[in-house]
User: Fold this.
Amino acid sequence: MPGKTKVLKKPNRSLAEQAYLLEIAKGLGTTLKHFWQGTSQMVSGNTPDAVKDPWADGIATISYPDEKRPYAERWRGVHRLTHRDDGSPRCVACLCCSTACPAQCIYIKPAEYAEGDARHGYERYPELFVIDELRCIFCGFCVEACPCDAIRMDTGTHMTAYDVKSDFIYDKAKLMSMVSQHGTQKSENPRHEPGDPTHPGVDRLHGGH
Amino acid sequence: MPTFKLDDREIPFEKGETIIQAAHRQGIEIPHYCWHPGLSIAANCRMCLVEVEPPPGQRAMMLDILTWDAAKNDYVVDRKPKLQPACQLAASDGMVVRSESSHFVKNTRAHVQEFLLANHPVDCPICDQAGECKLQDYYLSQQHTPKRMLDEPVHKPKAVPFGDTIVYDAERCITCTRCIRVCDELAGDHMLDLRERGNRNEVVLAPGRKLEGDYTLMTEHVCPVGALTSRHFRFKARVWTLKETPSICTGCATGCNMWVDVDPREERAYRNRPRDNAAVNKYWMCDDGMMTYLRETERRVLEASARGDAGRTKLTVDQAIERAAAALKGVPKGWLAVLLSAQASSEDNFVMVEFARQLGAPLYLSAKAGWKGDKILRSEDQNPNRAGAVAVANNAKVGTMKDLLHAVSAGQVQAVVGLGTDSDAEGDALATLGRVSDVVLLASHDGPLAARSTVLLPAASWLEAPGSFMNVRGIAQPFAKALPPKGDAVPAWDLVARLGRAMELDLKYRKFKEVRAAMAVITPAANPEKSSTADATAPAVQPQTTA
Assistant:
């Protein structure tokens, strides 16, 4: 059955365009322009910052993994446990994070500080603090739940591809060894403990009344 | 019955009752800290303030106040009614009380709450009360505003030892004096008192004293905040991971109602708490009763075993039942003695009595001895179910352990089938049991009788199987299963029924419900479901029946 015929207009190309050669030269010109620009930037060391100025002329790529794009401040990376001034964990094993965790990937075994420690009978600490990073869904609820700012996800590190599953089980030592994007192992919120010289409060032992 | 009006509800009350008591009985909670249904009235926390309308024809007692007028951007002179503590104000007929419906009351509660929290350290992460703390609850339900006090809070002593069981934190304390009143009114020993005033106010021990006696843990139980914590429970668990199960204390024959808090993930009991029952223990339990959850895991019998020439050999439960049945089948009629246990549930004893009746065996009762009672809660008898064991025997004669040992030494017993491991006879007297050729014992814990058994079967403990106890006053009370049985343990009634079937007796019981139903028919006195005072599924806060 004969249908409707749509007649296409012939493209109106000039002779120079139909000859191709000139257009090839134009295209190569653009390539060469970028080649020389990039080479001169590399030689002179004037490469624009691919992160801060991604739309600048010149080389817009980075040499991953030698160079890495920093993640945003609020990006949720691998967890870390923050330190106190004396290097002990800020965590008091309140189990709020493991309670809040929807993936149930946090296991904490609380323990009491040893006899003689200033915190004995007053606080507890995590004897075991284990996060199964394979189960973790990186929702950040643990960080939200933590009343002590003891667990943070500001390491700026995403999960490494290990070849053994057990490597994904991060224990307390591993979590304590992680540093933040800014290189600190402490938290952004300093903690003043009773008895510390920094503690602003007064009690019977430290003057006042 | 006279009534008063609380918000929109008519609340009936008995003469002499206060507003909070009458409301509590109707299941309406007026926020409070210092008031406790089992203690005297202190009216010092000011949380239960309510608005009371003046009697007809009389002027309302009003206070001049300043209120913030947003339109004028200034404070303006206003008036508000003088609020009165619901815990102290006696109800009268036709009284009109406003609690939730008065914005004055709601405002005041928020302010009282803010004052109470002004010097609070807010150390909830390290506080064991977190999750069941009244300060937390009322912050969310009554206040919900940030603290306005900018000054550093007053710091007070933390982790002060109050004796061997309790640790005190003065910073968390709201000085409601509940603990002081428990010592005074329950234990009858004025061990605690307050010192200083205002924001330096704190609870202290009486000079030269420490918190001691049999009711120290009740101070922690009544503490509405985290000021008093139990040494046994502190830092062990978080309360929101625990699951409560209604149970009965096995410490003595009083049969205090209690909750057992277990962690279902670890399958471990973490604490006991009193369960209110006006007819038995009111709101209280003694320290020994509170600690029975620890005894449950100590020296457990977790596998079946038989004593041979070369010591004990491990068996499966089925093998042990076969071996016991084979040994008992050879015993001539009248030469077998059956030992009931005052420590085991009525259901376990009931099936044991059935077993004995079909074999025509005489009944004896083993029990624990060595315990001091008092006039408060603790019964002279240390066994939770002596009355129940006697009741399920259904008028049959039940001899004591001494009678059994006497019969053994007289050579009248060839074999014993027994429940439980405890014995009130010890040492040389108990050694006469060695003359019996076969001692088949169903025990949850190791002990003097378990050591002398020839075949030992692992029974479930009181936390691992449902059952019921009849207390010294004859009230049969059910308890529920809180934990799965450990090891190879099986409920004792099931072991007896299986042993009976292996001996071709007519013991058809395969489910707990069947045992309970049969017990209700045969020995209705021991049936806990008839006992209205003991409801295992009753809510934590039960209506108070005695004012």
Summary: The radius of gyration of chain A is 30 Å.
